[in-house]
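Budget justification aside, the reviewers requested a transparent look at the raw inputs and outputs of the sequence design task funded under Objective 1. We therefore reproduce one unedited record. The lines immediately below are the structure tokens for a 242-residue chain.
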């Protein structure tokens, strides 16, 4: 007696299966056509990038609470708005820096610029920090700092000065400008990318970055970051990037 290797399922089962597949594909079409659950099923073009370290890794310079809210609400908020804005637009296919350069200085595209630039700036900020940060910069960077500012300390003082002289929200940056280094601040979502400069590290000086930990003492926050958390290795990596 031979036993068949494959066996057709009974007729009743096949009909049930067909009905199930039809119903399932109906639901799938409903979701994919942008129905109520669109966002839950379609992948966002700009997901929240992972943090390079756990949320308590920067304590005590930046508390886990500050980091959790900053990353999970502020950065997530900019990405959420951007994902909503780009639906059905060519921006959905662009990299963040391309959106930034395409929309910069155009008042009617301000919302795209602000949310894309804030998304880019925050990702760059987390990478500019490290639990093992601070200390002495790598030799090549140190030499460039000495040439541009006189010393590493003078460069750090420039960064603190840039941070406290920024009126309102913004960012303090160390950038590479041709073959020299520069310290600058930008307002709100503005970024050195639109001025043809190469950012090396940034410090977020919006109040949400430090208020829970330092209240109004912005200088103390920036000094602590520069002493203990600034990621000079990341700055070096950016300096070497073509
Ligand atoms: Mn921020």
């Amino acid at each position: 007696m031979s036993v068949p290797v494959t066996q057709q399922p009974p007729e009743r089962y096949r009909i049930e299966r067909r009905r199930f597949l039809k119903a399932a594909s109906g639901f799938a079409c409903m979701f994919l056509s942008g129905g109520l659950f669109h966002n839950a099923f379609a992948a966002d073009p700009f997901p929240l990038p992972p943090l390079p370290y756990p949320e308590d890794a920067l304590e005590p310079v930046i508390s886990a609470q500050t980091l959790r809210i900053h990353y999970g609400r502020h950065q997530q908020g900019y990405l959420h708005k951007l994902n909503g804005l780009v639906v059905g637009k060519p921006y959905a296919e662009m990299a963040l820096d391309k959106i930034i350069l395409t929309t910069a200085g155009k008042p009617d595209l301000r919302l795209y610029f602000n949310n894309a630039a804030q998304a880019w700036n925050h990702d760059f900020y987390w990478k500019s920090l490290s639990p093992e940060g601070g200390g002495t910069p790598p030799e090549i960077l140190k030499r460039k700092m000495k040439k541009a500012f006189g010393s590493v300390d003078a460069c750090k003082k420039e960064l603190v000065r840039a941070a406290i002289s920024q009126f309102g929200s913004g960012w303090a940056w160390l950038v590479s400008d041709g073959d020299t280094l520069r310290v600058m601040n930008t307002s709100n979502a503005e970024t050195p990318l639109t001025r043809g400069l190469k950012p090396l590290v940034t410090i977020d000086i919006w109040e949400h970055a430090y208020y829970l930990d330092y209240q109004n003492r912005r200088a103390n926050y920036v000094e602590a970051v520069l002493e203990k958390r600034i990621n000079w290795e990341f700055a070096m990596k950016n300096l070497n990037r073509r």
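DSSP finds ten helices and three strands in the chain. The first helix runs from residue 11 to 32. Computational costs for records of this kind are itemized in the attached budget.
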